[in-house]
Amino acid sequence: MPSPGVAAVDRALTILAAFEDAPEPMTLAELARRTKMYKSTLLRLMTSLQEFGYLVQLADGRYHLGPTPFRLGAVYQRSNSLHDRVMPLLRQLVADGTESPSYHVRHDSRRRLCVFRVDSQHSTLDRVEAGALLPLDRGAAGRVILALDGEKGEAYDEIREGGIAVSFGERDPDCAGLACPVFGPGGKCVGALSLSGPKPRFTGDTIKTMTSLLLKAAIRLTRALGGPTDLLDAALAASVDDARPARRARR
């Protein structure tokens, strides 16, 4: 379906989006392949993007993001109070000995965005960074977002009922994670808090301990955002008295 916006702007943003999952600077040919644009079109648009600092051309001829996206990201963080509410909670989870905590939001119909991340104190970690785009249908955080957005299926019904998702080897065969929703005004799920790390450290005892810590953090964040905590309170009570086990998205 064609975009209702300005075609040239759409194409320029498509060029910038091509760098989201690029591990290194790209040649013009690689950019043409990723964006499906002619090289002549790319060069015209990239001249403007370079002029405003969105792109830079390196000495070897390859292209990479320039300083302007970084500056805009800094402005976003300064003006977004969510950073000041989430990051202290993530740091406290690490101080309490959990695996690496992250905060995720829906990016589009297929992907979630890791907005904030703090690495745990363990020597081995899973590979997740702030700014990473990850699949919605693989991993505990993605399944929580899908469940609270109404995705159909027994596994999602269990997440909506229990407030917790646990996944083993869904996105990375060597890693595991657990996640719970965060609510805003009107009871809308605004994101997911998660803990993730190497699969061997997710034992029955550690999952139970981390579930309790994660739910307490989600309750504090939900209250700060003005959302209801009923589901999270019930899940916490269940985790404390071991009335029912955490839900597993997939072994």
From TrEMBL:
One of its GO terms (molecular function) is DNA binding. The keyword Cytoplasm does not apply. GO terms for biological process: negative regulation of DNA-templated transcription. Residues 68-227 form the IclR-ED domain. It holds the Pfam family HTH_IclR. PROSITE patterns: HTH_ICLR, ICLR_ED. Residues 6-67 form the HTH iclR-type domain. InterPro entries: GAF-like_dom_sf (IPR029016), HTH_MetabolicPath_Reg (IPR050707), Tscrpt_reg_IclR_C (IPR014757), Tscrpt_reg_IclR_N (IPR005471), WH-like_DNA-bd_sf (IPR036388), WH_DNA-bd_sf (IPR036390). It comes from the Bacteria. Keywords: DNA-binding, Transcription, Transcription regulation. PANTHER family: HELIX-TURN-HELIX TRANSCRIPTIONAL REGULATOR, ICLR FAMILY (PTHR30136), TRANSCRIPTIONAL REGULATORY PROTEIN (PTHR30136:SF39). This is Transcriptional regulatory protein IclR family.
